[in-house]
Amino acid sequence: MATNNKKLILAIETSCDETAAAVLEVVDDKKWPTIRTLSSVINSQVKLHSKFGGVVPEVAARAHVKNILPVVQKALAASRSTLAAISYIAVTQGPGLIPSLIVGVEFAKALSFATGKPLIPVNHMLGHLYSPFSQLNARRLPLDAKLFPMISLIVSGGHTMIVLMKNIKDYKVLGQTVDDAAGEAFDKVAKLLKLPYPGGPEVSKLAADGKPDFVFPRPMIHNKNYDFSFSGLKTAVLYHLRDFPKTKHADICKAFQDAAVDVLVTKTMRAAKEFKARSISLSGGVAANKSLREMFGLKTKDLRLNFFVPPQKLCTDNAEMIGIAAAFMLHNGIKPKNPLLVKADSNLEL
Length: 350
Ligand code: KG4
Ligand code: ZN
Known about the structure:
This protein is α/β, with parallel strands linked by helices. 41% of the residues lie in helices and 20% in strands. A five-stranded mixed sheet has the order 3-2-1-4-5, sandwiched between helices. The protein has a five-stranded mixed sheet with strand order 8-7-6-9-10, sandwiched between helices. The two termini are 34 Å apart.
């Protein structure tokens, strides 16, 4: 293996309430970027925000300011490399909470300016989109093999989108949520049930013991497009609690999760059929949900499609996925940007 094309990427992520840094080693022989994660450090602010029941942007930004330097130092030390050995600095540019994004972006710009290391601004959603490709290395699947077209479902706290990937470079959003994101719906249902923040994992845990004898609606499941809507489902939960206050919370969680999973799986599989997909990928914080992962596993097996889903630690926000996206951006010929021209962008689109 040629080692002269070996690069080290220092990746930084601060789009919401996780201060994260990672160091990745990438060997790109033009056909194939082989990525090895040398370190990945996540400083979660969950405890800080849990008393507010959600992320408070200014509190998050202040915590990022306090944590960013120690987190980056820790990632460098754990990788057994030094700042001098780093080839590129990658940072999440958006979308996300602007006070949070600014901390990471300005830190990375200053670091790039001071060290002369090239800066790669990364779309956070591209981080989620490319995160399942971390498995390609392990499975030794060449990128140009029969993996494409691929349909990717990205489900997080801020987004729910179906993306068509014609190849590793060429992607197009087919549809997204018109109101709440899937993770947001999990979090809102958790709030209705007075479960701790973040709600997704709590709802999922309770759902494991649920045996509901009722169902919740599946919004937009039969619509021809690939858009989603989750606010009506959350309202259905609200009305159910009002009308049947004695219902077991486990049953509510299970009925809600079944409805959300059904909509996500049905629409993704329909897109796979329409676009003659050979593979399906699943990513974003909600992809950590066991029931969603299992249902995707079963359906893709039935349809004989390749299925890629990252390990759970790569589903929720982290810097490793930002480094993975940067490696693929470089592979795809995207050039680093002048740090003076890079700005955090809370509404950055895919
Ligand atoms: O990707 P992510 O960490 O942040 C954003 O980019 O938004 O996603 C966070 C979302 C939260 O809404 C959280 O409740 C949800 O992912 N989540 C889950 C699970 N773990 C995290 N939702 C359902 N089941 C889970 N196990
Ligand atoms: Zn995310």
